[in-house]
Amino acid sequence: MAYKLDFYPEEWRTFIRECDFTELELDIIDLTRKGWYIADIAQELFVSERTVKRRRKSIADKILHHIIFSKNK
Question: pLDDT tens digits for 44-56?
Answer without folding.
Answer: 999 999 999 999 9
